[in-house]
Amino acid sequence: MTTVRSTTAVPGSRRAARVGVGLVGVALLALAGWTISRVARDATWQPWDGDYTDLSRFASWVVGSISEPQFYAVAPAGALLLAGGLLGHVADRMSWRWQGFVQACGTGLWPWAAGSALVSLLLGNLVWGWTLAPGSWQPLFVPLVSVAPAIVVLYGPGWRVGLTAALVGAVLTPPASILAVEYVCAPLDLPPVVGATTGMWLDAIVAFWLCRRLSWIPAPGAWRTDPPGEAGSSRRSLLWVPRRALADFSEAQFFGNEWASAALILGAVVAHLISPSSLSYGSGLFTAVLAAQVLTALAGVVIWRKKWQTHGFYPTFVPVVSVAPATVLAFDGTVQSIVAGALAGALIAPPVAAAISARLPRTFHPFVGNVASMGICTALIVSLLRLVPGFAS
Question: 231-253 in b/e burial notation, b at 16+ Cβ within 10 A?
Fold first, then answer.
């Protein structure tokens, strides 16, 4: 990821912008309220089964998919993540003291990155929803956290870039992940996140190759006018470690902001209090997943803090959305799975991601290395832990 931020002015008057932001904020809060009421009505996690006429279930599935990278897969968390992201963006634009880390890899392009990702998520579900059967699951969330926002961050804002990113992500990413889950994870008994992330980096190779051959896509980074800067406040602050660990909870969605992450977790906790079986694919292991994520986030930031100081960014978020929660689910939430998955992920996954990203072409966004590390490290750590006698008990 990069920490270069844009200062491109937003068209339109300040008053119109404020009214628009206010309306979006009200809509997101209303959406959050609707999702909470739906969780209260549905006692258990009920995935959408591909029936496009069931608009309520479809809407809940899509909004829940926004929190699926964290293994929550519950609509209130997804809706509040968007609300928190909006708050973080407004705080950045108004230069609030407690604005938090700048979103979209420090670029400030949150509206374009999030908008393109959401359109890609919706299109992906419309195009590939037929692959679902009653009671089944497919990684249809993958466009949200892969090609679409990455293309925007790399090639800049604008309708041509944003819509191209959304379309490419929606058409190519889901089938790649579906096939990887079906023909790699299932035969080898690997966590589904391995297949989902494999599909992401495979599709990214095709997508970034394609972008360089589309005449309306500018050169990578051509939109930037500022020199590199820091995505957040000084790393010397005593509060920097917990703030960065919190921000890592929403980094997978290209938010990476404390307000967004706090809202995401709040939505998940509220849903858990109402219906514990509505989260984490109905496993009932949300508290174990969250505990592992908190541990791996804090451990990763503490261990690799010097890398943050040197490079301005380091992918400590990688185990938060891969190794740690996948290990918990693989071993039914045992204490040893929480601790081992969290610490092993914090130690191994960030440097693997950084090493892969450092070797990518300039026309590739570093997220490719991050998702590759997610799949590689999750497969390796879960497989090795299964060889430890008595580990799962």
Answer: bbbebeeeebbebbbbbbbbbbb
Whether the pTM exceeds 0.85: the reply is yes
The torsion of the CA quartet 201, 117, 62, 185, rounded to 10 degrees, works out to 0
H or E element at residue 83: helix 75-93
9-40 tens-digit pLDDT: 445 567 777 888 889 889 999 999 999 999 98
Cβ-in-10-Å burial (0-12, 13-18, 19+) of 114 comes to buried
- Whole-angstrom distance, CA of residue 367 vs CA of residue 285: 28
Write the DSSP string, 325-371: HHHHHHTTT-HHHHHHHHHHHHHHHHHHHHHHHHTS-TTS-THHHHH
d(CA 222, CA 204): 20
Distances (CA, A) of 212 to 161, 243, 311: 12, 37, 27
